[in-house]
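SUBJECT: protein chain
CONTENTS: sequence, structure tokens:
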Amino acid sequence: MKLWGGRFENQTEKAAFDFQSSIHVDRRMYREDIVGSIAHAKTLNRCGVLTDEETAVVEKALNEILRDIEAGVLQIGMDHEDIHTFVESTLTERVGDLGKKIHTGRSRNDQVATDFRLYLGREVDSIIELLEGLEATLLSLAEDNLDTILSGYTHMQKAQPLTLGHHLMAYFEMFRRDIERLQDAKKRIMIMPLGSGALAGTTFDLDREYTCDLLGFNDITYNSLDGVSDRDFAIETVSDLSLIMMHLSRFCEEIILWATGEFAYVEMDDGYSTGSSIMPQKKNPDMAELIRGKTGRVYGSNITLLTMMKSLPLAYNKDMQEDKEAVFDAIDTVKACLEVFTGMIGTTRFNRDRMYEASEDGYTNATDLADYLVRKGVPFRETHEISGQIVQFAIRQEKKLSELTLEELKGFSDLIDEDIYGEISVETCVGKRNLIGGPAREAVLKSIQRGKEFLRK
């Protein structure tokens, strides 16, 4: 069945029909299309197009179609042009010519935009729930590792000591922003275009606010051209998903590095690792590598949408049919990655002794040595120079700063006393950084509490 064709004398070529058909992609929006059609039927009843009895028959039949699809009794036929055609033709099969009235006052242009927004709103909620699950896991791991000291890095060079709890909370903040972005994006997703028609509205007196309330939208669109041609909400959503994948990929990159023999900071659980077909000793972090790789796939969807929309004149153009495949793939990818990553990080075993041992290498306490001299009254620029010279000396001696004798240290400044060893221990280096957002135990505990309050909202 086609929802058009009266103007045409010849049938569409099969190859051309198959090429422009979208049923294989948009079939997943069957629920939204049915729910939207029920709301539209009730609105048509309000303006006198459908009687009370007709509306009841249509609503009952559409609900039965929904139940039959979800029970597997009714299969969505791939011979239909799109999900809208399938639902309307199935309705017509069941209630006769009454089913042909359901499209009064609407176009597939505003219908698909409405379905798409409803679907995205539901999927955004699902992704937020997955992110919250990951956040809860990170909070738990951070609490367990408040005192696990490891090196922080800049430029992939050891920089300053901090704690694993503090490191994990950095990712908590990233994913927190991701949640907030999706919550904000949903405000713009849940705007109802139904009533925009093909591009110029309709001559029927549809109560759009009533339909909006029935479908749970926040508001209606206020320009019919924009209502059918806007895909900003889809681009914004996939942009947000791209950021989620970027954060996951950064985390995965660290896990992959930490799992190497050179770092040996972590051991992946067997359930989230694979082996080699030829090298029996191998335990590969394949899940982390796949997530890192799939990041490019979501970026690709983002570029697809931006490129698709960049030159389209108002209003609807068939190019826009390409939006859903990109969005759906991005959603599926992000959901799968979040689920796997949460399980993976939650079962990862951290080698605390190795992290601590590595934190004492690399002169990560050099800044604290400089700060020690600042407290003795030396300007920071001078202490920076002195500390750098001491590091250079220690490197030549193949010693840690803590292994230098007091006499050796005093050779660089008479202000250095015995208390220097306590001041440059990695525990002190971390513990003194107790400002808001710092790595000290008390500061990280406050960050964790703040995170728990965020998840409770």
Q: What stands out?
A: The mean pLDDT is 95. The chain is about 60% helix and 5% strand.
